[in-house]
Structure formats: C-alpha cells, structure tokens
Write a structure and sequence with these properties.
Distance between the termini: 88 Å
Radius of gyration: 31 Å
Largest sheet: 10 strands, antiparallel
Strand content: 25-35%
Helix content: 25-40%
Oligomer: single chain
Shape: elongated
C-alpha cells in the first residue's frame, strides 16, 4: 500500500479510538453520581389519603403530619430543590433551593434551614430520599412574631369596674362617650364596639354587645375552655372539656321545650341575668361561673388540629377540618374513616367556591337538609369569603392591652356570619317560649343596625401565664 493509504488508515484508527474513548468517558460521567440516578428520585412525594401508594414520611416537630405533598428534584445528585406544599402554616408553596446532598449506594441525605416567604417562619430540616420514598423532619420551627405571641393564655375571670360607656349630656340631652362604674369589664368573651351614639337604638346596641352578649358568652365559654397555648411552632392547643354545658341549674340535655316547669325555670334565670342590672341582682357574676365550672374535667386538644401564622400584622387561625371532624366524632364514641374525611375535604378545598355551592344546592334538592339549606342560601360573596378562610386561615387580631390579651375578629370577618344569622330568623323565632322575644329584642336590632356600626370586635379575653410555650 502507498504511504498515503497507510497514513489514512492510521488516522481512521485514531479517530475510531478517540470516538470510543470519548463515548466511554461520557457514558461513565453520566452514570457517575454520588448516589442513585437522579431520575429515580426526582418526583412528587405524597401521603395524601387520595394517594393509594403513600411515599412520603413527614414529621413536624416530631409529630407525623399526614395529607401533604412535597416535590423533590435533583439533576446531578449534588444539590436538590424541595418544594413544600401547605406544610409550614401560611406558606401555600415554599421552595427550598440548592440544598447540598450526600449520596450513598441507595439514597441521598440532606439538611439545612429555611425561612417562610409569606410568614417569616424559620425552621430546620433534614431527611433522605431513595427510589420511591422521601423522609423529611422539620424541627426548631418558629413562626413569625412567635416571641411576641407564643404564650400560654388562660381565660380572663369575670370582673366589674369602670369602663367606657354612653352617658347622657344633661345640657343637650344627647348621648356622648363617658365612663360608668359597676359595669362588666372582663369575661372570657371579649367584645368592643364603636357606634355613632345619635343613631337610633345606639345605646341599646352598645349595651347588648358589651354587656348582654359579653356576659352570656363569657358564661358559656368559661364552661368549655380553660386556657389556650399558642406555641412557637405554629400549633394551637386548647384545654377544653366535653362535660355538658348548663344554664343555671339545668344541663342542656335537661332542657325540655315541652316541660313548662323546666322552661319557666330556664326563662327566670335568663331574664334575671340579661334584663336586670347588677345592682338589682342581675348580670352574670363570678359566683355564677364558679357554680358551673367547679368539678369540670379539662383535657388538652391534640397537636395538629389548629395552626396559626402571622401575615401583614394579623393573626391567622387555620383549622385542620378533617382532624377536627374525626376528633369530634371520637369524643362522642363514634368511629369515622379519617382517610375518607380527608380525601373529601381536600377535594372540596381544591374546587371552585361557586361550583361547590352549586353542587350543594343540587344535593340539597334531594336531601332537604336544614344545615345544607342554610349553606346554600348564603350570599355568593359571603360564601367565597368563608371558603377562603377555611382554606387559608381566619384573619384575626391579637392585642395586648393592660395585662389582657384579646384574640378577636373584626367587623369585616363577622359580617358574613351576621348575614347568615339574618337567614336563621325563622328558625330562631320557632324556639318555644323565648324565640320570638330573642329575635325581636336582640337579633333584629343588631342586624338592622349593622351597616351603621363603626367597629365591632368579638373574640377571647385572655391573660398570659408566666411561662412561654415552646
């Protein structure tokens, strides 16, 4: 062969060898991960009850958290991105990026710390991922404003004293703001109100909300709730009782609408407390509350029933509806499928509010259920507001004033419920003995005056215990 042919052959052989070497090098590099192939672990992991193959183990401050979803992705097995969906309270989507990975033959482990984009919550995380399984532990969780708000709060005791009150000006004959002694200043229920005193029934309405409702509400709440822990990790734990509530000497189960003697006894107590001033033996007293709370047994609610977070200076309360339903049924000695409740709730919260209401209307045409009827009659705007609060949390205020901590909803949050109350008038009027009196004396005046009320706040009146809850 010629020299030229021999040279071309050598060049061809060198090109083939180079190509094979390059291919081998590329192949070995593409497979040279510090752990499993990234394709095998990049996925959405879920322990939602609608997922038949749960592949997520999630722990929130040591407690297993169910019904959640997490994205995990890595390209080269060196770093990863993790997206938490509605896990840190108030953070609907929270992405953690460029997380260093440590690999072995079967898995990648990781750890780090994160901060909420919306709430300012901080937390640590650690875990590992393997093909078909993701485990994450969230620890040292501190919600935004936790140093200010995370305490144990006990219900305030019923007290009387001097407070802001409408006083008639002797010269003009008009009411103006002043102070009056021997008035109800604190109960477990917090109320506050501002209204134009020249509006019809203004003084009556102010007295109704800040005296009557405050007194009766505090009397009832004191029987149900002993204290509330707002923890730094976002949990809300209530110390409550399932012992039966009573009014006067009658337990709720003993109130028989057809028993004239029992109803007379009930009405005498209510009329005395609601319609007579304290100096005439009326009004609720500390002795009244002691009589119905002595001997009651209180227990703490489970972790994960309710959460809180801070956003734009407001205190949001987010309820775990499925867990609350199941717990309520269990307290009554009934078994319920938690998976089913959670699946249905998850589907409902993902739906469009208007479509959901339309579905409920269709269903109620067959069932004719009074509760469903009330829900389907709610105004579209009010229904959507309530739907958003159930999904994202109820916007509340948390104020510290003169040793008291008020946790309350303002007029904007209360308005949809006042509109619902208006639709309940026929049902309330049908209550034997005092239904019509209740509606005519209190319900209708409040509903009619609602548009001219400047501010109205209703919630809990509490006082901090000495220790901070962590």
């Amino acid at each position: 062969k010629s020299r030229k042919q021999r040279m071309m052959k050598k060049i061809s052989i060198l090109l083939i060898i180079s190509f094979i070497s390059t291919a081998c090098l590329l192949t070995s590099c593409s497979e040279d991960y510090p752990g499993p192939d990234p394709v095998d672990v990049t996925a959405n992991y879920s322990n939602k009850f609608s997922n038949p193959n749960s592949n997520l183990s999630l722990y929130y401050s040591g407690e297993e958290m169910l019904g959640k979803s997490v994205d995990f992705s890595t390209v080269k097995g060196e770093t990863a991105n993790i997206t938490l969906y509605d896990i840190i309270p108030g953070e609907e989507t929270l992405k953690l990026v460029s997380i260093p990975l440590i690999g072995n033959d079967t898995s990648y482990s990781f750890s780090g710390n994160g901060t909420g984009n919306v709430t300012g919550a901080t937390f640590n995380y650690n875990g590992y991922v393997e093909k078909g399984k993701l485990t994450i532990n969230l620890t040292n969780i501190k919600m935004g404003n936790s140093s200010q708000w995370a305490h144990s709060y006990q219900m305030s005791e019923l007290t009387y004293g001097t407070k802001k009150y409408p006083v008639r000006n002797k010269e003009t004959g008009l009411y103006e703001w002043g102070e009056e002694a021997n008035k109800l200043t604190a109960t477990a229920l917090y109320t506050d109100m501002d209204i134009n005193l020249q509006v019809d029934n203004a003084v009556f309405l102010y007295a109704t909300i800040t005296d009557v409702i405050k007194g009766f509400g505090g009397y009832m709440i004191a029987q149900l709730l002993q204290s509330v822990d707002i923890t730094s990790n976002g949990n809300i734990v209530a110390y409550y009782t399932t012992d039966e509530v009573q009014i006067g000497e009658l337990k709720i189960s003993e109130i028989d609408m057809d028993n004239k003697e029992a109803m007379s006894q009930l009405m005498t107590f209510i009329m005395q407390k609601l319609y007579f001033p304290v100096e005439m033996g009326g009004g609720f007293t500390a002795a009244d509350i002691e009589a119905v709370t002595t001997g009651r047994h209180y227990t703490s609610s489970s972790q994960g029933l309710a959460y809180w977070y801070s956003k734009d200076g407001l205190f949001y309360i987010k309820l775990n509806i499925p867990a609350i339903i199941v717990k309520s049924m269990q307290d009554k000695g009934k078994n319920v499928d938690y998976n089913l409740i959670n699946t249905v709730t998850d589907a409902l919260l993902k739906s469009n509010p208007s479509q959901l209401q339309s579905v409920l209307i269709t269903i109620n045409k067959q069932l004719n259920n009074p509760i469903l009827s009330l829900i389907t009659e709610i105004d579209d705007k009010d229904f959507q507001a309530i739907f958003v609060w159930i999904k994202n949390g109820i916007p509340m205020h948390l104020d510290n004033v003169n040793g008291h901590t008020y946790i309350y909803a303002d007029k904007s949050v209360l308005t949809p419920f006042i509109n619902i109350l208006a639709k309940m008038i026929p049902t309330l009027e049908a209550i034997p003995t005092f239904g019509e009196l209740l509606v005519a004396g209190y319900v209708k005046p409040i509903i009619e005056a609602w548009p001219v009320i400047k501010t109205v706040n209703i919630g809990l009146d509490t006082q901090k215990k000495s220790e901070t809850k962590h």
